Amino acid sequence: MLASMEAVRRLMDLRHRGRAEDLPDVLAAAAPLFDAESATVLLVDYGQVGLHPLRPGSAASLVVEETPAGRAFTTAQPQWSDGLLWIPLLHGAERLGVLELRLKAYPSEEALHDLTVIAALIAELIASRRFYGDAVEHTRRRMPMQLAAEIIWNQLPPLTFAVDGTLVTAVLEPCYEVGGDAFDYASNGDLLHVALFDTVGHGISASALTTLALNTYRNARRSGLTLLDTCRSIDKWIRSQYPGSFVTALLAELEMDTGAYRRISAGHPAELFLRDGQALPQLPTPNTLPLGLGHMLSRPPRIIEQQLEPGDTLVFYTDGITEARDVSGALFGVDRLSEFLLGGLREGAPAPELMRRLIQAIVSYEEGELRDDATAAMLQWRRH
């Protein structure tokens, strides 16, 4: 226990000095203190396909699919094989990668608890120190990222968030070229705000418009505007700054204590509504024109209200998901999307893992060449 605490103290020193790239040296020096022959940080790449050492060359990269390290990442549970222990690196509910430890024997329950605490501290250090250098970005990127995607990724919140039984998790693809899609969420008291945006066009112009929509949404939310006035504010600013352009969006609110759900669909596909292993009828959509075109309607946006039941799942998506085409030209479609998600939920797949599998399925369906940005977000509610 005392040796483990000394390892924690050494790692804690990085909170006040040091960069993410300094973590491997500190971790290597601290490894003997928790009876490890070696300790390596493996971070997941943007495509969530592989796990890669924070220091290149310090260990081999591993694929997520069908490896013990990958199972630790996908299940968020420790995995053991041939003297190696992999512990998930979780920043809150966000999956960053795994901690790989070479041990002489499987640890005792108390030792495993200490190692889990150390892994949690490492995840916190990565999340807090990543902005002081580019080591984490260099590790996570498997190819050059287009400028439009760089702009969008720097605007987004963590992909996964959970509080009091409510969870939000999202995926974006193509991760190195995305420019027109974005999502956002915020938890304030018992109110959860969630939004998904799909901007017309591609490249820098699309990312600039998406940036305006995303930050106008945050400004309206932080200014205390209602859902209706938030929609009007985004619409006004898009029309003012990018006349003739538009953004489709789902803007939603969930009262986490009661399950009261409200949303506006601005020219956007309806979210999937899943309950007790089946898809319920979709909520009315759209309720107003795409953002930027609202002046063409005389009536205000309509707010749709729905009472959720504990365990309900809502899935937001952009048309890049349902309009993906295989070699014959057949659409992936809403029905296939529902079947895929319901199958994963029946298997008990964690929501972040189900979203990862979905995007891999879409990429595979289009044989690796997406015709459009594909973004999805899952919201699960359980009464707390």
UniProtKB/TrEMBL annotation:
Highest taxon, organism lineage: Bacteria
Listed name of the protein: PPM-type phosphatase domain-containing protein
The organism of origin for this protein: Actinoplanes cyaneus
GO molecular function: phosphatase activity
One Pfam family from the record: SpoIIE
InterPro entries the UniProt entry points to: Bact_Sigma-Reg, PPM-type-like_dom_sf, PPM-type_phosphatase-like_dom
SUPFAM superfamilies: GAF domain-like, PP2C-like
Chain ranges of the PPM-type phosphatase domain: 163-381
Keyword Membrane belongs to the record: no
Keywords: Hydrolase
